[in-house]
């Protein structure tokens, strides 16, 4: 694409501080390949990256994509080093908390916006389908370019001030992460005597499987992010105090064991919150839960074929389905999904096969429309 000009009527040079990190690498790729911009970077993890001074001299836009805990101090050190040459630049950050980093950026003379993509760097080219918080703290000449960047990122952007962001994210992220980190700690103490994770999986519920997915995702992520969100969001101490108090109240009521305690738990933990959620939200949540259950059941099905359709064109799915019709194969389910490395495919659950699995695989590939990524005929 033709790069979008900045306020100086030329495409800006974008510098990424933390360019070797997960988001730094994703953003480098996005800005250079998708937006056609020149991207430079600094990261102590890279022996040959530019020095902070050189980077500040060459950059029009600086993006801080550094560990949550260190970001305010890193921004302040860049502001001290810049010593005025940043006037006219645009400074952005991607930190999962917004108050402290935005405050530190406002200590410079640059124009400032805080961003927070609400997802790990995706395996897709843009942030389409994800939310992103946008804190326009001091935007003047860079308004049009920033708008173009956000449009190209394709996220669902929510304009918010840093304080409101952190207050909300203490519940959206902090509370969710805290409860699942607690689940992880409890599971690893108590699950061994209950058959371990495989034993629990054998007795799974939809809720257990959903929660395990969240817990496992957190445990497989970067600990600096999950500790940063607990320790560096100023609203977390109050949230954790409420969480601990509610858990203690439930524990004490169950230990009490009386009918009165049972009634009190039903009222305080279920009926009062249910009234607060409201009927329409509860109905939507229940429906979501049931759909996740159907999805889990379909994905659990061990008779399936996963097909990648390289030609992203109208009609290729119909051509693929023709093969099944020709072979007299009934489909149990069909889902568009992505492999762990991000490849888009259709996962097709199958009723009992009237032909050998290998014949189906060959027929799909011979039709020249799809590549079989995986195929199973039961366990
Ligand atoms: N990964 C996610 O899920 C995610 C999602 C949304 C927002 N974020 C935010 O993006 C930021 C980066 O996260 P990440 O996942 O890329 O982390 P990361 O740990 O993969 O990357 C951070 C990078 O910063 C570098 N760094 C450390 N000190 C530095 C310094 N003084 N100067 C320059 N670079 C330095 C590190 O070497 C590392 O390469 C964080 O603030 C995080 O909150 C991350
Ligand atoms: O792993 C994911 O995809 C995430 O959503 C990561 C997650 C989260 O768990 O809230 C973690 C930190 C970021 O600030 C945004 C999102």
TrEMBL record:
Pathway: Amino-acid biosynthesis; L-tyrosine biosynthesis; (4-hydroxyphenyl)pyruvate from prephenate (NAD(+) route): step 1/1. It comes from the Bacteria. InterPro entries: 6-PGluconate_DH-like_C_sf, ACT-like_dom_sf, ACT_dom, NAD(P)-bd_dom_sf, PDH_C, PDH_N, Preph/Arog_dehydrog, Prephen_DH. The keyword Isomerase does not apply. Its EC number is 1.3.1.12. It catalyses: prephenate + NAD(+) = 3-(4-hydroxyphenyl)pyruvate + CO2 + NADH. Keywords: Amino-acid biosynthesis, Aromatic amino acid biosynthesis, NAD, Oxidoreductase, Tyrosine biosynthesis. Gene3D superfamilies: 3.30.70.260, 6-phosphogluconate dehydrogenase C-terminal like domain (1.10.3660.10), NAD(P)-binding Rossmann-like Domain (3.40.50.720). Residues 12-284 form the Prephenate/arogenate dehydrogenase domain. It holds the Pfam family PDH_N. GO terms for biological process: tyrosine biosynthetic process. This is Prephenate dehydrogenase. It comes from Arenimonas maotaiensis. The gene is tyrA.
């Amino acid at each position: 694409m033709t790069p979008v000009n900045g306020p100086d009527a030329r495409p800006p040079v974008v510098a990424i501080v933390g360019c070797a990190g997960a988001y730094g690498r994703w953003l480098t790729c996005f800005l250079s390949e998708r937006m056609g911009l020149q991207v430079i970077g600094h990261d102590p993890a890279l022996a040959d990256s530019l020095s902070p001074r050189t980077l500040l001299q060459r950059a029009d836009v600086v993006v801080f994509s550094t560990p949550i805990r260190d970001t305010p101090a890193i921004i302040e050190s860049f502001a001290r080093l810049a010593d005025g040459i940043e006037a006219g630049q645009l400074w952005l950050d991607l930190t999962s908390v917004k108050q402290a980093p935005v405050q530190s950026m406002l200590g410079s003379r640059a124009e400032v916006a805080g961003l927070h993509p609400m997802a790990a760097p995706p395996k897709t080219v843009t942030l389409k389908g994800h939310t992103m918080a946008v804190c326009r703290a001091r935007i003047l000449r860079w308004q049009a370019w920033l708008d173009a960047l956000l449009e190209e990122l394709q996220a669902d952007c929510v304009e918010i001030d840093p304080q409101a962001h952190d207050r909300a994210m203490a519940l959206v992220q902090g509370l969710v992460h805290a409860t699942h980190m607690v689940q992880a700690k409890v599971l690893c103490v108590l699950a061994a005597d209950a058959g371990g994770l495989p034993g629990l999986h054998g007795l799974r519920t939809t809720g257990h499987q959903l929660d395990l997915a969240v817990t496992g995702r957190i445990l497989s992520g970067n600990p600096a992010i999950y500790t940063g969100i607990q320790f560096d969001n100023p609203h977390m101490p109050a949230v954790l105090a409420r969480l601990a108090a509610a858990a203690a109240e439930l524990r004490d009521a169950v230990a009490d064991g009386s009918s009165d305690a049972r009634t009190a738990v039903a009222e305080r933990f279920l009926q009062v919150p249910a009234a607060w959620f409201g009927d329409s939200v509860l109905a939507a949540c229940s429906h979501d839960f049931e759909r996740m259950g159907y999805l889990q059941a379909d994905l659990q099905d061990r008779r399936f074929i996963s097909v990648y359709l390289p030609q992203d064109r109208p009609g290729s799915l119909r051509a693929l389905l023709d093969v099944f019709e020709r072979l007299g194969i009934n489909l149990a389910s069909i889902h568009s999904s992505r492999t762990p490395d991000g490849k888009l495919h259709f996962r097709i659950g199958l009723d009992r096969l009237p032909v050998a699995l290998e014949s189906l695989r060959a027929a799909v590939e011979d039709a020249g429309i799809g590549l079989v990524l995986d195929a199973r005929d039961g366990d």
